[in-house]
Amino acid sequence: MTDLTRKWEESGYNKQYLEISDIILQDRDRLMNILISHIRHFGKSRAGNTFLDLGCGDGVLAKHIHSFFPENTFHVCDGSEKMITAAKENLKHIAGCHFYTVTFEEIMENEVFGTRFDFIVSSFAVHHIQHEIKYRFFETLNSLLKPDGHFINIDTCLSGNQQTNEWYYTLWKEWIIGQQERAGIKEDYSDIPQKAPHKPENHYQELDIQLDWLKKAGFTNVDCYYKYGIFCIYGGQKTE
Ligand SMILES: C[S@@+](CC[C@H](N)C(=O)[O-])C[C@H]1O[C@@H](n2cnc3c(N)ncnc32)[C@H](O)[C@@H]1O
To answer: Among candidates 111, 103, 161, 99, which has minimal Cα distance to 128?
Structure first.
């Protein structure tokens, strides 16, 4: 476990994230549904695929995918034992789901899964990897895919223009305020977009750099499939 993944183990941190994620994660439902459309369009079949969810948290993304494509095999991993415990509870209806308490850094060093995947997916987690090792992580993901397999990542991405990024943070703040009003909650989380980029566990990076690293790591058909402020879906395919 790294110091940063240890933070996810701290009492209260995981719990608070899980409680407020629908309030603070801009457009999460839409992003997850676009990912479903991608799988539906590009999957060779609706059944028999093997999925890996990276940084699964409580398993929200795997659960969503399984609700559309139940006849598949699911593997979920997270560096936090508490998150994996939450995922085990949330995904207990998925027969044969594989759970791994393992960090991204450990995945780069060891053969953890003993299988290859048709889809590697992730939501709001890959930005926790430090810039210095992210390219190598993408290479690892490429090696974990079956030929023609897809990596689809819901995550943060920055513009190369700082003024544009400032607006994106304002856009995010406006979204949080709107969600708070809709949900009728008293707590105010609207300072998160100001604080999040400066937290040590967050490594936000320009979209173009991330796409470039995917290409250099061996992915083809690399693209940003959807973008709303700093939140996006990007990915690529392994062709061999
Ligand atoms: C923002 S949460 C997202 C969780 C979930 N995917 C979702 O959409 O709600 C980030 C997750 O990444 C995990 N994480 C952070 N750094 C990690 C690392 N280096 N290796 C593995 N997991 C990590 C955390 O434990 C946490 O569950």
So the answer is: 103
